[in-house]
Amino acid sequence: MDGSLYIDWVPILISAKLAFVTTIALIILATPVAYILAFRKFRGKALVEAVFALPIVLPPTVLGFFVLISIGSFSPVGQWYRDIFGSTLAFSFVGIVIASILYSFPFAVQPIQNAFSAMDPKLIDAARTLGCSRWQTFCRVIVPASRVGIVTGAMLSFAHTVGEFGVVLMVGGSIPGSTKVASIAIYENVETLNYAQAATMSAVMLAFSFMILSAVYYYNRTNNQLAIR
Amino acid sequence: MARPLTVAVASNALKPVSEIARLFEQESGLKIRIVHGSTGKLYTQIAQGAPFDIFLAADRERPELLASNGFARGEPFTYARGSLALWTARTDLNLTGRAKAALSGDEVLRVAIANPDTAPYGRAAVEALKALGILTDINKKLVYGENVAQAFAFAATGNADVAIIALSVLGGKEKKRGGELYIIDRALYGPVVQDGLIIKDSLDEASSFVSFLQGETARTVFESYGYLLE
Fold first, then answer.
1. Can you say whether the dihedral through the CA atoms of B54, B55, B61, B62 is positive or negative?
2. Could you tell me which residues are beta bridge partners of residue B142?
3. Do B117 and A74 touch (CB under 8 A)?
4. Smallest Cα–Cα separation from B121: which of B151, B79, B165?
5. Could A82 and B117 be called an inter-chain contact, meaning their C-beta atoms sit closer than 8 Å?
6. Among B44, B118, B159, whose Cβ lies nearest the Cβ of A72?
7. Can you tell me the distance from the alpha carbon of B44 to that of A19, in angstroms, rounded to the nearest whole number?
8. Which residues of A touch B161 (CB under 8 A)?
9. Where are the alpha helices (DSSP H) in B177-224?
10. The whole model's pTM is what?
11. Are A143 and A68 in contact (CB under 8 A)?
12. What is the rounded CA–CA span in Å between residue B224 and residue B168?
């Protein structure tokens, strides 16, 4: 129980790296899903949407336990990974990235899907009549018009991943320098009665989260005003 | 309305303490409520005034600390001594007489233990690995569960090859849970002494449960769950 204000930056940097990698992966993976959900009609769409929204409802430990079972050495995925790479998928940085992608998926998909759905369909029709391919329409019309939604999705994914605890606790194995993220380091500091260290790291997390959220709201406000003008 | 006698117990001792509480209820006609969690969490809750009567920790430090800070009625007492075991779900992994070689060799990728910073059984596991002389060799293979139960879960789901756990997690020597169990030599680590405490402002019945907890019936229950008698 030392009262020094020394901050262990390693877990904070791991959290930041995890959030960064997860966000990039999510934008790449969530955009096509959001596109299909926004523009295509197909049977069972409500069920698909429900599946993608599940991580919002499921307790993180439940999700983490599912992941742990699915990537364990008794599962085909875990067995395959172990045969190829000679290591376990759980307790690795890749493992917690996969878990984080699942966990934050709805936070990326939903703002992007909403932005796509809110587009004036006339713009898309116009682009198509003027000879744009589907891909060109997507890149030159849909994405620029939906940038607020995409940026919001990215920022929420980032913030949500930084705040992650239960999933990483289940899948990560708290390895210092690899899978011990800031939230877990704070938890362990409380458990070992290092309240000063826990409080300092919490303050860093609080300031960081506040900055991200302020940026999201500021960005949304300025861009909505632009859209109105 | 009077609250029932509330016992806050460290997760590793939940099963035997629940059983002992049931026996005590039958004998005394009193009602017992049990809450469980990690020792660190329960400690923090008690220090913040949680309405518990008895604290049964997984270590000696936390009850001692509460007592020296004036949260206790009387002195801490020892209620159980835990022992360590190796458990694996891999039936192809024979550890008899060659645990040392197997753990440091290529057939084992991951060894799960409870976090030594937060869990006494994690600390004991590190002690045992050090005494075996393989701690530095297998340091990179170690993964840390929040407690012994999570370390066990890592091995049970096949994410770790082996887990070093408290024997009590399995509920005794006979319960192998579909895997293989190896008792770790008691000379390799200091016993995990679990202390308890009656919290100040507790109900008067607290002390009668504590006597029961240290009596012959309770000892038999603890022993059947893999705790040591000394």
1. negative
2. B111
3. no
4. B165
5. no
6. B159
7. 30
8. 73
9. 206-213, 216-224
10. 0.80
11. no
12. 9
The DSSP 8-state label assigned to residue A138 in this structure reads I
Which of B163, B173, B177, B198 minimizes the C-alpha distance to B86? B163
Residue B179, helix vs strand vs coil = coil
User: Within 13 Å of residue A43, how many CA atoms lie on the same side as its CB?
Assistant: 0
Q: Which residue in A75, A82, A91, A94 has the most chain B C-beta atoms within 10 A of its own C-beta, making it the best mutation to test that interface?
A: A91
Spatial separation of the C-alpha atoms in residues A13 and A73, rounded to whole Å: 29
Q: Any chain A CB within 8 A of the CB of B159?
A: yes
Instruction: Band the pLDDT of A112: cuts 50, 70, 90.
Output: very high
Which domains, ranges and CATH numbers included, belong to chain A? 9-224 (1.10.3720.10)
Alpha-carbon Rg for chain A, nearest whole angstrom, is 20
Of the candidates B141, B156, B131, B130, the residue with the CA atom closest to the CA atom of residue B102: B141
Amino acid at A200: T
Distance CA(A116)–CA(A65), nearest Å, equals 33
How far apart are the two ends of chain B, measured CA to CA in Å? Answer: 41
- Give the model confidence (pLDDT) of A160-189 as tens digits: 999 899 899 889 888 888 899 999 999 888
Question: Is B88 near chain A, with CB under 8 Å?
Answer: no
Report the C-alpha gap between A134 and A120 in whole angstroms: 16
H-run or E-run covering A212: helix A195-228
Cα distances (angstroms) measured from residue B203 to each of A159, A217, B23 = 46, 52, 19
Assign B214 to helix, strand or coil. Answer: coil
Tell me the three state secondary structure of residue A36: helix
Say yes or no: B141 contacts chain A, CB-CB below 8 A.
no
CA A13, CA B134: separation in Å to the nearest integer?
Answer: 30
Residue A192 DSSP label: T
Judge whether B157 and A72 are in contact, CB under 8 Å.
Answer: yes
Look at residue A229 and tell me whether its pLDDT is greater than 50. no
Which of A147, A135, A140, A111 has the alpha carbon at shortest distance from A123?
A140
When CB atoms are compared, the residue of B110, B118, B160 closest to A192 is B118
Please determine, for the modelled complex, whether the ipTM score is greater than 0.90: no
Percent helix, percent strand, percent coil in chain B, to nearest 5: 40, 25, 35
- The domains found in chain B, sorted by start residue, are 5-81+193-224 (3.40.190.10), 84-188 (3.40.190.10)
pLDDT by position in tens, chain B (length 230): 467 899 999 988 988 999 999 999 999 999 999 998 888 888 988 988 888 999 999 999 999 999 999 999 999 999 999 989 999 998 888 888 888 888 999 889 999 999 998 888 999 999 999 999 999 999 999 999 988 888 999 999 999 999 999 988 887 767 788 888 898 998 999 889 999 999 998 888 899 999 999 999 999 999 998 898 76
